[in-house]
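Subject: mismatched residue count in predicted assembly?

I count 626 residues in my input, but I want to confirm that the predicted structure covers every chain. Input:
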Amino acid sequence: MISDKHIVLLVGGVGGAKLAYGMAKILPAEQLTIIVNTGDDFWHYGLRICPDLDTITYTLGGVVDPHNGWGLAGDTRQTMKSLKHFGADPWFGLGDRDLATHLFRTQLWHEKISLTQITQQITEAFGIKHTILPMTDAPVPTLVETIERGTLGFQEYFVKYRWQPTVTHIYSAGIEQTTISPQVQEALNRADAIVIGPSNPWLSINPILSVPGMRAMIEKGDKPRIAMTPIIAGNAVKGPTAKIMRELGYKVTAHTVCEFYGSSINGFIIDECDKDLGEIFSTPTLAIDTLMDTNEKRVQVARETLNWIKEIR
Amino acid sequence: MISDKHIVLLVGGVGGAKLAYGMAKILPAEQLTIIVNTGDDFWHYGLRICPDLDTITYTLGGVVDPHNGWGLAGDTRQTMKSLKHFGADPWFGLGDRDLATHLFRTQLWHEKISLTQITQQITEAFGIKHTILPMTDAPVPTLVETIERGTLGFQEYFVKYRWQPTVTHIYSAGIEQTTISPQVQEALNRADAIVIGPSNPWLSINPILSVPGMRAMIEKGDKPRIAMTPIIAGNAVKGPTAKIMRELGYKVTAHTVCEFYGSSINGFIIDECDKDLGEIFSTPTLAIDTLMDTNEKRVQVARETLNWIKEIR
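Triage response: the counts match. Full output below for your records.
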């Protein structure tokens, strides 16, 4: 129905997972590759934790906690509760079953297996047929410079301090030294279209686009490459996107997001409630109901996105 | 009642924990220091795991699993169950609450805090007043050479292969480079007597005695230093002691153990059922009922041991 085109979807965590879920319901495994931000990854209690990869994996595996949008549904927290007895502040949510994912990944990490291969083993264990790829195999921590707390690791900023400090700058430490993985390269080479999910452009998508070679590969040829706004009616559906935009001096509109992506995209999806703002976009836009608050809406938004790609071509 | 003498007890895991429990019930905190084998410590799923330290801690904290003698009573195993979904073979028992101990320790380990200090924080969290010290701060893995499986890490030998491979040699990798910690040194300096618990002499006690400087400090002066046999009626109460003795070419008797300790001891406790074997010991012996299958028996054996120390002096 959507023909045999290969779509590459770039996403962060919870927001992007909704579109990934919708697309995975429509496209067969060989027609969808999901490239995931790893700038949020960090070491915690000696474990290698990849929050965005896990969120996408648990969502596509149908086992994500429906309330939080991350973690495993019905998971227990015995380990976390016990950590408190040590006077430790277990600020990052670790479910008992979720911990198995971190333990397994950490074991393979120490065996020098690439994050791409580790992710493949984990997604297979969750019965996922679609390919989920980390944006790069090397650690590229996203660092957040703040007024109140200085430079923070992403999870400290996001979870420990609940994105309350004022952001002055965001960057990916050591990204110049990383390389695009063969698997990401192959997926982009094979791509007929690229979709950027409604994730945080500064925190989730920019790290992906900043991997050396990534932008060039995305812009190569003249394939459709469209992004979906995370901003609806001047606000973010969830999370710190709007707050960060304000702090970085941007106007909180879908238009700002579109301009931020610049030549990385040649199509932009805004929410229908923003279509009468009279803004002039530098790229063609599509206005649809982008709110994906149910599984049905996720599939519907994915379908409208894929249909538009066919029109653009 | 036992006067104000300071006792240092050397132990491994489950067997030694029984005597440690009994002594801790009798002696106030300032009169008992327990030095624990760390040759069993290993990295597993990226976590630093110290089985003997945890067994002693959980036992003295009154939270040990009474059936196994290790792990936490009533612990759940959600993480381990989930690890199986990854095709991993979680051969080492990790309870969910037990995992918190490993996570906390690993976090501090990566912060370059010494194992001695980490252990102090953990034992305090379990409400333990007595001092529990790792034999040394540096990793000194006990390696077991076997006929069937080559050289194995201790936990692989002991847990993964259930001590079934035939042992040809046991050694502590890198022990020459380790040093006795200031805390162990201080405890031994202050000691009025040293007791070696009924742990495996080759696997648990010899690693402790092999830390450079340890034997000299124990033998310094002429204080009582007595060991308790782990062999009763030609067999071990639990575990591979007898099997290993046979494989290493020893006769499986308490007498062999006593000779193995040599000048490190000047007193040896055998089980009363072995007192009529007519063996000539090179050191004074005491024959008592050494089986510590109840908490009452543990206190009783500890009391008889401490009373004998007073007589020896």
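DSSP finds twelve helices and 14 strands in chain A. Marking this ticket as 'not a bug'.
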